[in-house]
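re: ur question from earlier - yeah i can do the single chain one, its not a big deal. heres the input i used so u can compare w yours
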Amino acid sequence: MRRLFWTGAAALLGVAALVALFALLRGEFTDTDGQILLSLGITLGAGATALAGLALVERDDFALLGWAAIVGAAGGYVAVLWDIWTDPWDDEATATALLLMGVLLLATTSRLLLRRATLEPLVTVHLVLSAFATGLTIWIIWNDGPTPDWWAKLVGAVWILAGLAWALIPVLSRSAGTSSERVVGRGPGRVEVELAEGETLVVRS
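and the output i got, formated as tokens:
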């Protein structure tokens, strides 16, 4: 699946380059060109989100989050793609779909980037902060009235903390060197393990 995704990603980038070249040679950038490029972009983003979710499902590690990412990627992809090719543009629905796909991508990768069992609470912190910030942001997107200044500052602060928690996971995972523990999966079930140079696989019951 990973090879298939990267092959598809390369193909999408190639098509995007061709569209840009045709637009350049034609001397104008049409609405259809923009729609094609946006469609390619959302296809790549939704595919990455679904693949990250599938990786969690295959590991049987936070499988519920993995299924949420797969379903969210499929639903968001359809919603955004429909909005790209139809009129009028539904700003709220598209923004919500893009937000959810982005949050699910970060949430799944926060788990996939985990290399030390001691950092699992940090993943939980990221998930809680992201869920809270997402709820607040969706309220802002769909709220027709003015947003209080303190509310916007609160949302921004929560997003910053959520982003910090996500960024610290790979940084702290690598801080102890390759001899540190990292979680590669939980049984029962098959787990595909890729060891870096100098790493040793230890199986614990």
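The mean pLDDT is 82. not sure if urs matches, ping me
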